Amino acid sequence: MVDKYDEISKQLRGLVLPELNIDVIENLLNDRVGLIREISRTVQRISVEKNLYLPSENTQILAAAIADEILGVGPLRELMEDPSISDILVNGPDKIFVERSGKLVRTNKRFIDNQQLTEIAKRLVNRVGRRIDESQPLVDARMSDGSRLNVVINPIALDGTSISIRKFSNVSRTLKDLVNWGAMNEQMANFLALAVSCQANIIISGGTGSGKTTLLNALSRHINSDERIITLEDAAELKLQQEHVVRLETKMAGVESSGQVTMRDLMINTLRMRPDRIIVGECRGGETFEMLQAMNTGHDGSMTTLHANSPRDAVSRLENMVMMAGLNLPIDAIRRNISSAVNLLIQANRLHDGSRKITHISEIMGLEGDTIILQDIFSFEISESINGKVQGKFVTPGLSIRSNIYSRAKMHSKDMYLKQIFGQ
């Protein structure tokens, strides 16, 4: 019966779409219920004319599916509206996965065929003012609700059109939320809040989906309200609460490979805009050099994220990205630049049970020979797994008297509060 319904649905879909009154449909684009009602009437009429019988319930299902296709999301509508879902991953017409609570789960949603999937993918891309075709078979963009959209089609998507959506949350999380989720403890949250308010330069490292942007948003809440903040992103995700914020976003090249604005272009221009703090959504290349220069030349309290699996890996990644600027700096000069610019490295990890933890808060203590010295202020020690759930505890050796954070706290008259955090 399911196979029969699928076949009839496919036939009716092809027959119904050309028969719809475009003027009527356009007037119903903001009324999904009315749109389904109009499509249902057309489905019923064509079912009779072509002797393609469908029960009333199945007619409504088909009408809703066509309506959602017209509205541009197809079978993804319910997934887009589900607040428990953070990512939607489409690997083909019948392979739709979502991420819930850090775990990937296959859904029972499906497209009729790859043609329908590709049509909806193109509509999503068109809605954000971009185009996708064989000459430009991949697009990365920001949707109108802030969600990040990535679409790949043939010839480079070998198993069918691929859609990846990182959903945008309108809720700006706090450090207290992260404590409640078990990502850190209260002592760590208090320390990070103080470090931000004392204008420490911070880099958050971690893998995809480890919570870097969520943490960056939470940290930004502790920036003083009288500071001028400029944010730079490839796809705007940051939700700063302060009034004096300028948001900048990169721009991909147009049809004729013109008009591109890179992260490095934004970074260079930002330095001319009199920022107090600069927040870069993610450093990936040569713009890292300008970011470190900004941290070293009066833009204290600047923050960014990068992809790395540990604080030590993050340092190596910083070195590599500075080299990508093409300035042929010697490695010892790069390391001096990093050690003087960056105060804290925060490592975010997604563990095998799907939970997210701040596994390290490390301070750069300076150079010893040609090695950048790192010292953990906090770390997460894994003890065991019980019923698939990772167990462990957050530990701290305390704060060194040589700490730059201590010096900053003293300069901002907050050293007593810092001592209270560590019970000194």
UniProtKB/TrEMBL annotation:
<dbReference type="InterPro" id="IPR001482">
    <property type="entry name" value="T2SS/T4SS_dom"/>
</dbReference>
<feature type="domain" description="Bacterial type II secretion system protein E">
    <location>
        <begin position="73"/>
        <end position="351"/>
    </location>
</feature>
<dbReference type="GO" id="GO:0016887">
    <property type="term" value="F:ATP hydrolysis activity"/>
</dbReference>
<dbReference type="InterPro" id="IPR050921">
    <property type="entry name" value="T4SS_GSP_E_ATPase"/>
</dbReference>
<protein>
    <submittedName>
        <fullName>Pilus assembly protein CpaF</fullName>
    </submittedName>
</protein>
<dbReference type="Pfam" id="PF00437">
    <property type="entry name" value="T2SSE"/>
</dbReference>
<dbReference type="InterPro" id="IPR027417">
    <property type="entry name" value="P-loop_NTPase"/>
</dbReference>
<comment type="similarity">
    <text>Belongs to the GSP E family.</text>
</comment>
